[in-house]
Specification:
Length: 142
Amino acid sequence: MPDGPGDNDTASTSDTGVGSQDDHDPAGPKVFDLALRKTKVTATPSFSYGQTVMYQVEVFNQGNIAATGIEVTDYLPCGLEFDGTSATNVGWTLSGNKVTRTYGGVLNPGQSTTMMIDLIVRRMLYGSKYRMDELCRDISGR
């Protein structure tokens, strides 16, 4: 009976106190929703060629299920070069003009994780493209 004894009981007992009454348990769809924010950490108003610039890449779990095996990809434009000698860049892999990194932990709903990356300022070539970042996939199969 709606609003009767046991109707909103999370222990799921029936009105008589026996068995299971599962008519009012909150249920919703599983939502897998990750977001990414990349910000410049190096606090210099202008940069010189050859200077290293540190960026922070933060991944947020905005969904309601845990995420694992999160692969982050950063496409490097002309004018920025991956610094393979930087200790900050351990875990990042360079392939052409993109770098990737996989977050090996579990990112629960409402949590975020931060990754740092160092890039070197280089001369830009004519026709260069703008930076793009993305969350490629959850390699665990979601």
